[in-house]
Task: structure prediction
Amino acid sequence: EVQLVESGGGFVQPGGSLKLSCAASGFTFGTYAMNWVRQAPGKRFEWVATINSAGTSTSYADAVKGRFTITRDNAKNTVYLQMNSLKPDDTAIYYCKCWYNASEYRGKGTQVTVSS
Result:
């Protein structure tokens, strides 16, 4: 059974930093790309970042480019999202997501709140 468990969210002031983690199990983690997505209150899901299976290629939404960094540790079956220079618009529930056997899997998410 595929499981994705996010952690690391919290409350931070504008300009602050947080590092999110997503622990994966139930599939061969090191052979699948991983994604972070987010959903702000009353809004649709928004793609944030993607990392390939080897961790050698990343891509980012324009809204977070230059501030967020996605990385992974295949030995620990974990993907991370380092978030710097946080803005109130980054307030959302953050989820890690993967496609496995033609199905989409997403964790329960971790809340990030950016406010003064």
